[in-house]
Amino acid sequence: GYLFISVLVNTNSDLIKLIVQNIKNDLNSRNPVHVNLALQCIANIGSKEMAEAFGHDIPKLLVSGETMDVVKQSAALCLLRLFRTNSDIIPGGEWTSRIIHLLNDQHLGVVTAASSLIEALVKLNPDEYKGCVSLAVSRLSRIITASYTDLQDYTYYFVPAPWLSVKLLRLLQHYPPPEDPGVRGRLNECLDAILNKAQEPPKSKKVQHSNAKNAVLFEAISIIIHSD
How far is the C-alpha of 130 from the C-alpha of 65, rounded, in Å? Predict the structure, then answer.
């Protein structure tokens, strides 16, 4: 049913109004598969009607301590899709801090999805989300100093979590260098480590290894240029 709705139903169709209640029922389900299917359907349609109907439910789902990690990932990406349709969908105030603290989540999949959402929010309102800087630096430090064996599930050709590292470095480029000496020092240590690793002999001759390694390196160089 969700596949039919996502692919064949036009966003202006009257059928959309009829399926909203069914989607809400699945969002409240205890089955993570049903919740994920509902979130994916909302994101695929991505209309203003969907943003209005679920704008209050999805942020709550995203920051709830009872939500499973796999659902949080989908909720973050679904919210990003709706935010691009209606930038007023995400409330401010206490929600800002709760969304920012997703960067500190133990599950790197949640952090990766949240990073994309937070970067979009930062582009619109950097002052409100400036608290993300210290958390982004802290998470980046943990990734850069980790061995590829420490993050096996998120290591790509011997490079620990390269896509998350790229997202965090891009996020930091929206702000001036951190004013806090501790945070700035930690960021500089990360950048030094990235530059030093770039000079080490490659751990693999495959192009995927060099691509991932260089992607992180290029963003590190960009943030150094941005800081100057």
Answer: 23
Q: Per residue in 45-102, pLDDT tens?
A: 888 888 888 988 899 999 988 999 999 999 999 999 999 998 888 877 778 999 999 9
**Helices and strands in the chain, H and E counts:** 12, 2
Residue 182: partners with Cβ closer than 8 Å, 6 or more residues away: none
Distance (Å, whole) CA 205 – CA 30: 46
CA angle 163, 168, 174 (to 5 degrees): 135
Class of residue 118 by CB neighbours under 10 A (exposed 0-12, middle 13-18, buried 19+): buried
Close Cβ partners of 31 (under 8 Å, ≥ 6 residues apart): none
141 phi-psi bin (left φ>0, alpha ψ -120 to 50, beta other): alpha
Residue reference for tokens 């709830």: 64
Residues whose CB falls within 8 Å of the CB of residue 131, separated by 6 or more in sequence, listed in order: 96, 97, 100
pTM to 2 decimal places: 0.89
Best CA proximity match to 42, nearest among 62, 26, 60, 30: 26
